[in-house]
Design a protein that fits this description.
elongated; alpha/beta; Rossmann fold; binds S-adenosyl-L-homocysteine; nine-stranded mixed beta sheet
């Protein structure tokens, strides 16, 4: 028996090395601690397998590799003092005690704490001190600690633990939105006010239950012993629960009530709280289908560049396709439109459109954004090559003014501002004016093709200005962009004729009324705000929100897409109120300010906005802002737990199909 364990231990250490554990002091500690003494007698033969094993109270002794990884991540020196939360069997505490001077460990289960304490004494780990209690509050009497390790997964890093670190001290803790998956974080205390976060990988731990950990999970784990520790929902959450219209599933939810509330609105704006959540796309698709089928909505306009969306438009209306020089939706962030959720909708729309005798009657798909300076230039030139080759040559010459900055249009703005370059404003304005003068000639040949060319020429003019304005400040360029999107929407409505109706898909930050948020105070406008001014009650604004889950987003502009974990919502946010309602998904009308729930929601609170970039490490500063939800939206749609879109872009490793959406 003794020999066998010895043999297993060598293989055990080799296995840890293979997995990337390099720290010799950690490997030595792992080789020294007799893991077989910490597992139940019936599990002895698995003591040196690399797997977590069950212990009493439904808990687990951690997987050896994870214990080694976490111990290494603490970067301990011999004289260090360490706090462990989640003693469990006491195994990890023993490993820590091999390296550090003193180990303090806390376990919430009395029986486990007692057993571990006895065991560690028997093994002569006199430098380990076991306490039974709530480890999320730390053990202040012995603080500060050079390292704190938490062996259970919590919703966020407990403030008490961070406060009990020395300056330079490390907290290693699994953080995640659910009890199913977490990210292992190392949080280093830089000074009294600042910490630094590092992600060490995906892990899976039992839940951290306590004052600064999970609460409600208690109920799931021990149904018989619940009640005391379950947070009672705040009254406003109760009101939300009572007023909300439950969404049992996106496919089957009855939308007749929503259709009544929308009534005769000419524009319905559908938001999203992130740029990469599947449920938001699916629900917007469901509502849009209903608006098209039952209310005769004529087109969908989205937060994408005009030329990219034009490819989709050709596809859904089965019209003649011009060969494109650039692949569709190839510009960052590709996943926003090149995803399975959009593809499903687009396929549906193409099918739906088959009933119409002419493509002009079919429902269209357009882009409102203005980041496509150069592909728009190409589109205008291609169009002119066909209808007026002489003018095409002039266009080439005029637009040629912008050619040197193709790789980085933002630098054009900088150069134009310094006065070293005269800029290209005159050229792009003249080109637009020339096209407008030809309206009667050209539009008679093919109105839609002319609309496309004219929209691109307008976009070029605005993009030229946009890149110059960017240097004046973020509010100016934000306003300019949203004004462009609104103008494009209005032009489209004009094109489709009096009484035509549009669905708009954009981020909440564009479609929720800016006047009801911090943006308004900064003098910022947006599409929702402009629609309300222009259409009054004929604009219906729907915001979307979520508590936690996963999202497709990047860490920086231009960086690769990642599937990131959305942290549970802030305790002071609208999202938390919705979460506390206990409903998974719902619609909440916000128009009637005499209604109590609406009245109470009016007081501004935090709201979360995740864009193409998500930085959970600095979430409050980067992603929360103040808003009054009922003033911002006419209605709010909630999905408590959400998941990332299924990207079709290169990030998904498939490579952008050139034929999207045509080949699928
Ligand atoms: N380090 C342990 C693994 C324990 S599993 C080992 O090597 O065996 C995590 C433990 O954390 C469980 O025993 C669980 O009861 C405990 N736990 C969860 N929340 C806690 C809290 N707030 N305070 C103390 N212990 C907690």
């Amino acid at each position: 028996m003794e020999k066998l364990v010895q043999y297993n231990k060598e293989a055990f250490i080799r296995m840890l090395r293979r997995q990337g554990i390099r720290d010799e002091s950690v490997l030595k500690a792992m080789a020294t601690v007799p893991r077989e003494k910490f597992v139940g007698i019936n599990l002895l033969e698995f003591a040196y397998d690399d797997s977590p094993l069950p212990i009493e109270e439904g808990q687990t002794i951690s997987q050896p590799y994870i214990v080694a990884l976490m111990t290494g991540a603490l970067m301990l020196k011999p004289g260090d003092r360490v706090l462990e939360v989640g003693t469990g069997s006491g195994y990890a505490a023993a490993v820590l005690a091999e390296i550090a001077a003193e180990v303090y460990t806390i376990e919430r289960h009395q029986s486990l704490a007692h057993q571990a304490s006895v065991r560690l004494k028997e093994l002569k780990y006199n430098n380990v001190h076991v306490l039974c209690g709530d480890g999320t509050l730390g053990w202040p009497e012995n603080a500060p600690y050079d390292g704190i390790v938490v062996a259970a997964g919590g919703p966020e890093a407990p403030r008490s633990l961070i406060e009990q670190l020395t300056v330079g001290g490390r907290l290693v803790i699994p953080i995640g939105p659910s009890t199913r998956e977490q990210t292992l974080l190392r949080i280093t205390r830089i000074n009294n006010n600042e910490v630094e976060f590092e992600e060490l990988g995906a892990v899976r731990f039992v839940p951290l239950i306590g004052e600064e950990g999970w609460r409600e999970i208690e109920e799931e784990i021990k149904p018989k012993l619940k009640t005391v520790s379950i947070a009672k929902p705040a009254p406003l959450s109760d009101l939300i629960e009572k007023s909300a219209i439950h969404i049992p599933s996106i496919d089957t939810v009855d939308l007749s009530g929503l259709m009544k509330r929308i009534g005769d609105a000419r524009v319905v704006l559908l938001g999203e709280a992130t740029h990469g959540t599947a449920e938001f796309y699916d629900m917007r698709a469901r509502i849009t289908k209903e608006l098209i089928q039952h209310k005769g909505f004529r087109f969908v306009a989205v937060e994408a560049d005009w030329p990219d969306a034009a490819q989709i438009d050709h596809f859904v209306r089965e019209t003649r396709m011009e060969p494109t020089e650039e692949p569709t939706f190839a510009r960052f962030p590709t996943w926003m439109w090149a995803n399975m959720q959009v593809l499903e909708f687009v396929k549906w729309l193409r099918n739906y459109n088959k009933q119409f005798s002419s493509p002009d009657k079919a429902v269209g798909f357009f882009g409102l954004d203005l980041y496509s300076l150069y592909s728009s230039i190409n589109s205008v030139i291609n169009y002119l090559e066909e209808v007026d080759p002489e003018l095409a040559a002039i266009a080439r010459k005029r637009y040629g003014c912008l050619t040197p900055w193709e790789a980085d249009p933002a630098t054009y703005g900088a150069v134009a501002l310094t006065g070293k370059h005269k800029g290209c404003e005159q050229e792009v304005v003249e080109m637009l004016n020339t096209l407008m003068r030809k309206r009667l000639d050209y539009a008679a040949q093919d109105g839609r093709r002319f609309l496309d060319a004219l929209s691109n020429a307008r976009l070029v003019k605005n993009a030229e200005q946009y890149y110059r304005i960017m240097y004046e400040g973020s509010s100016e360029s934000w306003n300019f962009r949203d004004q462009h999107m609104f103008d494009t929407l209005k032009n489209l409505l004009d094109f489709h004729g009096p009484g035509s109706r549009a669905v708009v898909w954009e981020h909440n930050s564009h479609i929720g009324d800016a006047a009801a948020t911090e943006m308004g105070a900064r003098g910022e406008i947006n599409v929702g705000n402009l629609c309300r001014k222009h259409f009054g009650d004929d604009a219906y604004l729907i915001g979307f929100g979520t508590h936690h889950g996963t999202v497709a987003a990047a860490s920086d502009w231009g960086a690769p897409m990642e599937i990131k974990i959305v942290r549970p919502s802030h305790p002071e946010s609208y999202e938390r109120l919705c979460h506390d309602s206990g409903l998974n998904a719902f619609m909440l009308p916000l128009v009637d300010q005499k209604q109590r729930v609406v009245k109470e929601l009016l007081r501004p609170r935090l709201e979360r906005a995740i864009g193409v970039i998500y930085r959970p490490e600095t979430e409050v500063a980067s992603h929360y802002f103040n808003a009054s939800l009922p003033l911002q939206f006419n209605e709010y749609i909630w999905f408590d737990e959400t998941r990332a879109v299924d990207a079709l872009g290169p990030e998904a490793g498939i490579g952008m199909p050139e034929t999207f959406p045509f080949g699928l």
